[in-house]
Amino acid sequence: MAEKTRTGGCLCGAVRIEASGPPTRVNYCHCRTCRKASGAPVVAWVTFPAAKVRFTPEPAWYRSSEKAERAFCARCGSVIVWRSFADPEHIDVTTVTFDQPDDPELKPVDHLWMDAKLSWFDVRDELPRYHEFRKGPRVK
Ligand SMILES: [Zn+2]
Ligand SMILES: [Zn+2]
Fold it and tell me: Per residue in 15-33, pLDDT tens?
């Protein structure tokens, strides 16, 4: 059976993306770097194996910290990708980049970097919350 392929793109349409197969992770990130890069108080990310994601053309890359780089559309500035240098086999795509983001498989399952969350941003769902990364301790 053929794998499901999701399509998406940046705001202006210059960069298109295709991701095949199911995502490996989905989450919200409240960290400062995601906020700065996106212009939003929180970012929803969906992770795929890097080999399952194809860009047309390749977006622009920017090293956003010692640990990771981000890709964006050089024309409209849409934030498209986060990738950790420690785990180049996976790629995080901003969920809203996809043409059909209102997809149950793309629904975030937890909140990362709650320690950085803006106080006026109210999280009311029952999803697990982590101080930082998922491998670290959870917020009570
Ligand atoms: Zn664009
Ligand atoms: Zn983040």
Answer: 999 999 999 999 999 999 9
Q: What ligand is nearest to the CA atom of residue 34? A: 2
Does the residue 129 lie in any domain?
no
Q: In this structure, which ligand is nearest to the CA of 32? A: 2
CA 99 – ligand 1 centroid, Å: 14
Do 60 and 74 form a contact (C-beta atoms < 8 A)?
Answer: yes
The domain tally of the chain equals 1
List, for residues 37-70, the tens digit of each pLDDT value: 999 999 999 999 999 999 999 999 999 999 999 9
Domain contains 105: yes
pLDDT tens, position by position, 74-102: 999 999 999 999 999 999 999 999 999 99
- Ligand positioned closest to the Cα atom of 42: 2
Protein residues near ligand 1, an ion, with CB under 5 A: 10, 12, 14, 73, 75-76
Nearest ligand to the CA of 59 is: 1
Model pTM?
0.94
Residue span of the structural domain in which 90 resides: 5-116
In a domain, 60, yes or no: yes
